[in-house]
Amino acid sequence: MTALSVNLNKIAVLRNSRGGNAPDILRAATVCLNAGAHGLTVHPRPDARHIREDDVHVLAALCNQRGVEFNIEGNPFAPPRAGYPGLLALCEAVRPAQVTLVPDGDGQLTSDHGFDFRSDGERLRPVIAAFRALGARVSVFVDVGDPFVSLAAELGAQRVELYTGPFAEAFAQQLAGPVLAAAASTARLAQSIGLAVNAGHDLNQDNLGPFLAQVPGVQEVSIGHALIDDALYAGLDATVRAYRRIVDAAAGVNA
User: Fold this and answer.
1) Is residue 255 assigned to a domain?
2) Catalytic annotation, pick one of 38, 43, 69, 161
3) DSSP tag of 23
4) Distance between CA 169 and CA 240 in Å, rounded?
5) How far is residue 96's CA from residue 82's CA, in Å, rounded to a whole number?
6) Residue 122 bears catalytic tag
7) Is 43 annotated in the active site?
8) pTM recorded for the entire structure
């Protein structure tokens, strides 16, 4: 069955735009879990544009209390700065179930590509080992169709997360067939060498079901932007339940 992890970054963006504590990250996270989310995802960035260091500690405590997975995304090579101790230090402090390594820079609006394992591999190897030493499962962000995805396993990663932005764009244009086929092929390649597969970026209620129907064995989807967009109209509880119905249906579960 595919797990649904709700990314809370956009809640933090709204809060930070005004200051104060509204909307409340902890309250939103609790609603998501009560509605059936299997876990929570955050992507704290060095510029603290959304999720902050203090949020990470609060949400880690909630996940520990509820016995659900906490997934922290981030660039392991981004140096510490005021308000951001670095990804490894954050994870050392809260010990998340999963760390998803993403090659994003400060200037990027959002994550938009996977690692190049040929050029990044030797830098990644000790980093992956350090996160695994904390007891975290390590997933690395990959591009669909990357022929070198097998190198992720050689470097010590346990999962890959398929970057689904291009799929979502093609789906919106009714041109998703080739991208879906490539995603399925990449997933099978990863699984053939012992890597589990996650997916995320621009997945929504329209394209999630078709994606899961064609891409085998997806362990987890991380969804934030589209889910919060839907929640503005339908409410957060109802929206999380709607996404749960999609992932449950994909697994043949009568939700």
Assistant:
1) no
2) 43
3) S
4) 22
5) 22
6) no
7) yes
8) 0.94
